[in-house]
Amino acid sequence: MVRSSFILGIVLFLITALFNYAEPAPADLAGSPYHRHIIYQALILFWIGIIGLIVIIVMKLRETKRIQDMDVHKDAEDAPFLD
Amino acid sequence: MISRRLEDWITERYDVEGLHRVLRAKYVPSHRYEASYFTGGLTLFLFVIQFLTGMGLALYYVPHSEYAYKSIVDITAKLNMGWFFRSLHHWGAQLAIASLFIHFFTNLLLKAYRKPRELIWITGFIMITVLIFFGLSGYFLIWDQRAFTAIRVATGGAGNLPLIGGPIKIFLRGGIDVTQETLTRFYAFHVSILPMISLIIIGLHVLLVQVHGMSVPISQKDKQGKPQPFFPNVFYKDLIIWLLGIGVLATLAVIFPAPIGAKADPMAPAPENIKPEWYFLFLFQTLRLFPGQIAGLNGETIAITVISLAVLFVFLVPFVDKRSSAGKPSPVYTYVGVFYLVYFVAMTVIGFLD
Amino acid sequence: MKLDHSLVSRRTFLNTIFGGWLMAIASGGIYAFLKFVFPTVGKEPDFVVLNTADFLDIPGNTMKTFAWGGKPGFFLKRDDGTILALKGVCTHMECNISYQSDVKKFYCACHKGWFDDHGRNIEGPPPKPLERFDIVITGQKLIIAKKGVQVDLPKA
Q1: C21 in A contact zone (CB under 8 Å)
Q2: Mutation site, C31, C35, C36, interface B, largest B CB count within 10 A
Q3: Could you tell me the residue range of the domain that residue B131 belongs to?
Q4: Does B12 map to a domain?
Q5: B223, part of any domain
Q6: Domain extents in chain A
Q7: B54 contact C CB<8A
């Protein structure tokens, strides 16, 4: 599980990094219109990343709640002893 | 494979299962005002971002009156992504202080300060002073015209405190005037003294929160829902808030890059329309309410004394609000809290619009 | 073709995309931060221009220092009149060296390393000879250049 998330992480990072290398130079001063567009593009990508992560966390939250509502532990308490 | 062997290495030496048990046992109350529980974590998170960006900036900033301004211009113009990290640090400070005030007023109104959490309130209050001083000292390091004037006024204002004002002014300024000595001092505060103090005080504060658990407002005591386990439910919600925090921070940093004015000139007149940082505005608006002379006494001194007493009162509120410490509803102090909040917001807004 | 059972459990799936996505964002952020804290390095000069008059007429067996970026450059005139220019920095741990005219050798005080008057390391820990420079004399200008560098002076 750790390995596959590692691989997925590298893949996603490389995809976003490709965008960086598509432009010739890193953004210096947020002055010229050319560089300003790179910055806004980076900002959009960033927000996509954040929203994506929030969506995943919400999915995990709902899954956790689903499991917790099954009252897994309560079952064990009510189980009768086999004597 | 490797991860399994690493796990085994750790479990052979440390009681990880015991740690898991402790963490799984942490529960968070659920009620109408449970959103207030996220304010502290957000403040801490923004504070950590300040530490990281600050450490990066400290690699390049030169704390000498001759070179300070230029080093910041170099950071902004010459370094890879320098403008971005400086902007992050600038906006991070604004958001951290804003978040801190939200945290403060939330806990004041919900009376989380009441027994047994008085020490949490005290350490938190110390943190407000520390964070504001962080903001003041950091702002001064820019050494532009605005910053220079701001510190002249701030230290000059501190000098108006009765009795202790003079020594405080000399201590802050490193002399009788705002000079290179002041810059050195404020740099020492900003990168060394205050971080050390905050590590200790925040450590205490968070530790005490773990010990006492989250406070439930008196009105909600009998209306609580099922307690939520902190791991993973509330932790995930914390993460979401923090991610949104980063998002807002980065957006502000990019769209409104950190400003810098003209280099400071100790001989030049104060710039037109100069205002202190927004979190001081309420103080300065209050000062303006007082006339220069009251019954022969210095108006400034009286104003500062009144403000100090008001601040002292709210500092000691866990000890004066006896009703809430006994677990009883305390509407008088709710009104007091509302008054403080409305006053703070109104004075800040008026100061802004002035 | 439809599978009867999922290849991974719901938990594995969720944790994988969570970890992967988090790492992608984190590595982007760390990459930006690293770019910030690693400074763009400066360079030593390719050549420096000096006045012929200041250097060519020094007596034999003397050494005159010139600036090579932030480091010392040594201009040596030997007893027989031949000249040599090299970087006055020891090849061991970059201490500044000195010229001992009584023994006609360069000496590094840090670990007692010695170089002969051609810059070769002869004694002590230094692993390599001193870095030698090319000398080009055009009238009034004495140009000291890194070995192999083409010097194009602007017409001034």
Answers
A1: yes
A2: C36
A3: 36-218+228-270
A4: no
A5: no
A6: 2-26+33-73
A7: no
Model confidence over B233-267: pLDDT tens digits?
899 999 999 999 999 999 999 999 888 888 888 88
Which residue from A26, A40, A50 is facing B247, i.e. has the nearest CB?
A50
Long-range contacts of C73-78 (CB under 8 A, 24+ apart): C73/C48, C73/C133, C73/C144, C74/C99, C74/C106, C75/C50, C75/C144, C76/C117, C78/C104, C78/C117
Q: Sort out which chain A residues have CB atoms less than 8 A from C25's CB and list them.
A: 46, 49-50, 53
> Using one digit for the tens of pLDDT, what is the confidence trace for B128-169?
999 999 999 999 999 988 889 888 888 887 887 778 888 888
Q: Min CA distance, B75 vs chain C (Å)? A: 9
- How many domains, in total, are found in chain B? 1
Contacts of A10 in chain C (CB under 8 A): 23, 27
What are the start-end ranges of the E strands in chain C?
A: 47-51, 62-68, 71-77, 83-87, 98-100, 105-108, 113-115, 121-123, 132-138, 141-146
Q: pLDDT at residue A28 above 50?
A: no
Q: What CATH number does residue B234 fall under?
A: 1.20.810.10
Nearest CB neighbour to B254, from listed A28, A39, A57: A39
pLDDT band for position A16 (cuts 50, 70, 90):
low
Alpha helices for chain C (secondary structure H): 10-37, 52-56
User: Looking at the domain assignment, is residue C95 inside a domain?
Assistant: yes
The reply to whether A32 touches chain B by the CB within 8 Å rule is no
Cα Rg for chain C, rounded, in angstroms?
28
- Domain that residue C125 falls in: 47-146
In a domain, B250, yes or no: yes
User: For chain B, what is the mean pLDDT?
Assistant: 90
Largest Cα–Cα distance of chain A, in whole Å? 82
Selected for mutation to probe chain C from B76, B81, B254 (highest C CB count within 10 Å) is: B81
Interval C44-85: pLDDT, tens: 888 888 888 888 888 888 899 999 988 999 999 998 889 999
State yes or no: ipTM above 0.90: no
How many distinct structural domains can be found in chain C?
A: 1
Rounded CA separation B142/B144 (Å): 6
**In this complex, which of B80, B233, B257 lies closest to A64 when CB atoms are compared?**
B233
Residue pair C41/C65 in contact (Cβ under 8 Å)? The answer is no
CATH code (residue C67): 2.102.10.10
Tell me how far apart the alpha carbons of residues B24 and B17 are, in angstroms, rounded to a whole number: 10
Element (H, E) at B95: helix B82-109
The residue of chain A with its CA nearest to that of B73 is A29
Chain B residue nearest residue A26, CA to CA: B80
Q: What is the pLDDT of residue B354?
A: 75
